[in-house]
Specification:
Blueprint (H helix, E strand, L loop, with lengths): L1 H12 L4 H8 L3 H9 L20 H13 L10 H10 L6 H14 L13 E13 L2 E12 L4 E7 L4 H15 L5 E4 L6 E4 L5 E3 L1 H10 L2 E4 L9 H14 L5 E2 L2 H15 L11 H11 L12 E6 L5 E4 L2 E4 L8 E6 L3 E6 L2 E7 L7 E2 L6 H6 L17 H11 L3 H12 L7 H11 L7 H6 L30 H8 L4
Parallel strand pairs: 1-4, 1-8, 4-7, 11-15
Antiparallel strand pairs: 1-2, 2-3, 5-6, 9-12, 10-11, 12-13, 13-14
Length: 495
């Protein structure tokens, strides 16, 4: 550009001849005339090279690529450039592989879909799931990430679960609504099995019972994307990628799901302090406009669980989601209701909770509560050393010492007495029973009754005292003292 400018100034301003410029620069006179005709060099445009061998096959390549798009062939099963090259050879192509590869790349680039920018109103949300690896106590585990994004304010909520299922889907919504301080009026989804049981048309869906229960409680409107159109909820699609790259790189190392979700919630709160691109103010400030358009949170919290009616078997076990959970033996063979939450399982009988366990996410696992079998053990004391529910029961050393003390005079009676001591755990926490046993062991002779006696607190009961503070209207009342003479007369004595 510098030389271009100098030539134009010398000829057009200083009057130097073109022949003189030719001698100085060595340029041809036609080149100099082009410089004088334009104030700046014209842009360089590379013309397409002719491809005599491939030219007749370009339309054939385009037809192969378009047919795969129209038929929605999976990406892993589509034609590669090498496979297209092999097919063209069979059809008479005599050129090289490089030309085919460049033609495929160019057609794929120029045939990509063009999207319409969408407007996002306050109060709308989008939901999707993603996956990421987490290290729990040194062991890699795949986590399902529930992500809710608010397109207007760009606010984000992420929560991790062991699996994508109905109860985690419901719990994710309940936690997200509590985090944002309201219920989104309209939420966009894909066509996952947690929400859609059947696709009836482009936008018509048959919804699952779990989704209908959630919607009936929070009253939001739903919108489902068309098949193979995830761009209709493109904001949350990009947020899933953002969360994976920013919250899970490097792989987080935590001890529990609760700790992981506390970390994710803190990161989501920190993200609200960032500024929204193209808008004035931070995400937190924009979130206030979303909240103004939200539906209010219901007065009653949503019970985010999956319910199943079943029956306890002869081993006093209840099966839920391929896993077994124990109940007290008195409920064996009885009908029960199982409530499966994202972190626990409640087993109910006549609206009363009879058992509670941590949720098992494996397959064909068993969760025992040893206290559920103590009543049966008292009737069958010979099973004490062979009972499966008691095999992994880690009791303090004082329990084993007590058993040895009780079995010294008579082993059979000692085992029965020890089981009676264990049954105290049905009503009292382990820590209190442990302290009571330690006190009883200090005596020369100990039994179940002595241990039970030590379960009561040592402190004297506090006598409640009536205080006049705050009851000024009672301060003027006077109560006469009792007449002890009347009581003496009842006893037949004198005052």
């Amino acid at each position: 550009m510098e030389q271009w400018n100098r030539i134009r100034q010398r000829v057009l301003r200083d009057g130097v001849s073109i022949r003189q410029i030719q001698r100085e620069t060595g340029f041809h006179h036609t080149t100099i005339r082009k410089v004088l005709a334009c104030s700046s060099p014209p842009p360089f445009v590379c013309g397409a090279r002719e491809k005599p061998k491939l030219g007749a096959y370009v339309d054939r390549i385009a037809a192969i690529l378009q047919a795969e798009k129209d038929e929605h062939i999976p990406q892993k099963q589509r034609h590669t450039a090498k496979r297209i090259f092999e097919r063209l050879l069979e059809e008479g192509y005599t050129g090289g592989y490089t030309q085919v590869k460049e033609a495929v790349r160019e057609l794929q680039r120029t045939s990509q879909e063009v999207f319409m920018p969408l407007r996002h109103d306050p109060g709308e949300a989008q939901v999707d799931y993603g996956h990421a690896l987490v290290k729990f106590q040194g062991k890699l585990t795949k986590a399902a990430l529930f992500v809710m994004a608010l397109p207007y304010s760009d606010a984000l909520f992420v929560r991790a679960y062991p699996r994508e299922c109905t109860e985690t889907f419901q719990d994710g919504h309940a936690q997200a609504f509590a985090f944002f301080g309201g219920v989104a009026r309209r939420i966009s989804y894909d066509n996952a099995k947690t929400s859609v049981s059947q696709i009836l048309g482009p936008h018509a869906r048959k919804l699952t019972d779990g989704f209908l229960q959630l919607q009936s409680h929070y009253l939001f409107a739903e919108h489902f994307c068309r098949i193979y159109r995830p761009n209709e909820k493109g904001v949350v699609e990009s947020m899933v990628k953002f969360a994976r790259l920013n919250f899970f790189v490097p792989v987080p190392q935590v001890d529990s799901w609760q700790e992981l979700n506390r970390v994710l919630e803190r990161q989501c709160l920190e993200g609200l302090e960032r500024r929204v691109r193209g808008k004035s103010g931070t995400k937190k400030e924009m979130l206030r406009e979303d909240q103004a358009a939200f539906l209010p949170l219901p007065a009653v919290p949503f019970d985010a669980c999956r319910k199943a009616a079943t029956r306890a078997d002869r081993l006093s076990l209840v099966r839920f989601d391929t896993n077994d959970y124990s109940v007290p033996v008195r409920f064996a063979h009885h009908a029960v209701l199982v409530k499966g939450y994202s972190d626990r399982v409640l087993i109910c009988r006549n609206d009363a909770v009879i058992a509670e366990h941590a949720r098992l996410w494996g397959k064909e696992e068993v969760a025992y509560d040893p206290s559920h079998y103590l009543e049966l053990l008292e009737r069958k004391p010979g099973a004490l050393d062979y009972a499966e529910p008691l095999a992994q029961w880690k009791l303090p050393a004082c329990f084993h010492l007590l058993r040895g003390r009780l079995e010294e005079p008579d082993r059979v009676q000692g085992v029965k007495e020890y089981i009676r001591v264990l049954r105290l755990l049905e009503k009292h926490p382990l820590q209190r029973v442990t302290r009571a046993i330690e006190k009883a062991l200090k005596l020369r002779h100990c039994s179940r009754d002595i241990v039970a006696q030590y379960l009561y607190p040592d402190e004297l009961p506090v006598v409640p005292t009536f205080i006049l503070d705050g009851r000024e209207h009672l301060q003027g009342i006077r109560v006469d003292g009792p007449d002890l003479c009347a009581y003496a007369a009842l006893l037949g004595g004198s005052n």
